[in-house]
Amino acid sequence: MRRVLVAFAVLFWASSAEARPSAPLYDSNYLNIGLGCQWQQKCMAQQQKAMNKALKYVRKHDLPAWRIHMCNRNAARTRYRVDWVGFENCIRNTALRDPPPRAVRKAPAKPAHGEIASRSRGERG
Questions:
Q1: Please, which residues have CB within 8 angstroms of residue 99's CB and are 6 or more apart in sequence?
Q2: Region of residue 39 (phi > 0: left; psi between -120 and 50: alpha; otherwise: beta)
Q3: Are 70 and 99 a contacting pair, CB within 8 Å?
Q4: What are phi and psi of 76, to 5 degrees?
Q5: Could you please report the per-residue DSSP string of the chain?
Q6: Largest Cα–Cα distance in the chain?
Q7: From 26's CA, which of 10, 105, 107, 118 has a CA 20 to 30 Å away?
Q8: Please, what sign has the CA dihedral across residues 32, 34, 84, 82?
Q9: Phi, psi at residue 123, to the nearest 5°?
């Protein structure tokens, strides 16, 4: 009787291991969305749907690089996590305009050699 119970337990344990889903470590998108949503199924479904729609939109339309970069920066939760719903809303926003070019600052002029020496001696020199 004991052997039958042990055999049954081993058989049940082996079959349940095959039925388990694979670890999310091998699917980086699923892992990213799962961590961002704290593994809440409704949130993960929304993020997955938004990701697919946004990627399809980007493939279909020839978007300028600045728009994609801006939306990536806006939708970033952290450096490695993206809020896909926010990215999709941003990428489809037709009101976005190209940001003006950044002003290039000139480096401050270097003081002459004599000025540095006089400053290093203090106020009274």
A1: 66, 70
A2: left
A3: yes
A4: -75, 125
A5: -HHHHHHHHHHHHHHHHHHSPPPGGG-HHHHHHHHHTTT-HHHHHHHHHHHHHHHHHHHHS---HHHHHHHHHHHBSSSS-B-HHHHHHHHT-TT--PPPPPPPPPPPPPPPHHHHHHHHT-S--
A6: 101
A7: 10
A8: negative
A9: -70, -40
Residues 71 and 53: beta-carbon distance below 8 Å: no
- Name which residue leads in pLDDT, 60 or 110: 60
User: How many whole angstroms separate alpha carbon 120 and alpha carbon 98?
Assistant: 47
Token pair in block for residue 78: 């952290």
Look up the pTM and report it. 0.58
Q: Is 47 exposed, middle or buried (0-12, 13-18, 19+ CB in 10 A)?
A: buried
- Pair of tokens at residue 116: 């540095």
User: Does the pLDDT of residue 45 top 90, yes or no?
Assistant: yes
Residue with the larger pLDDT of the pair 23 and 96: 96
